[in-house]
Write a structure and sequence with these properties.
This protein has strands at residues 2-7, 10-13, 18-26, 32-39, 46-52, 57-58, 67-72, 77-82, 91-99, 107-108, 112-117. With 118 residues, the chain is mainly beta.
Length: 118
């Protein structure tokens, strides 16, 4: 079992930046993928970015350019740097984890709210 705790969400004006963090603990496989999804009110959860334990990253085309995912394996922590935020980025951001490589996660954090005001 892997536990995930997110932090860093909040209220920011359009054009601003935020950095989300997600710390993992528990039975963590050395080869794993961590990443972020988001869910806006009334919308489906969508993939933001993933990163493997070796540093391989994956971004959907819609997320490329303003979002950067990174990780610190020594701390079992993944980060999401978000720049040039827009009101449409308002959502609950969820951290996820899985063993091996992929974007279907087996463990989830509780989510952190990001609100971008216009």
């Amino acid at each position: 079992q892997v536990q995930l705790v997110e932090s860093g969400g909040g209220l920011v004006q359009a054009g601003g930046s935020l950095r989300l963090s997600c710390a993992a603990s528990g039975s963590i496989f050395s080869s794993n993928t961590m990443g972020w999804y988001r869910q806006a009110p009334g919308k489906q959860r969508e993939l933001v970015a993933t990163i493997g334990s070796a540093g391989r990253t994956n971004y959907p085309d819609s997320m490329k350019g303003r979002f950067t995912i990174s990780r610190d394996n020594a701390k079992n922590t993944v980060y999401l740097e978000m720049n040039g935020l827009k009101p449409e980025d308002t959502a609950v951001y969820y951290c996820g984890y899985r063993a091996g490589w992929g974007s279907t996660f087996s463990s989830w954090g509780q989510g952190t709210q990001v609100t971008v005001s216009s």
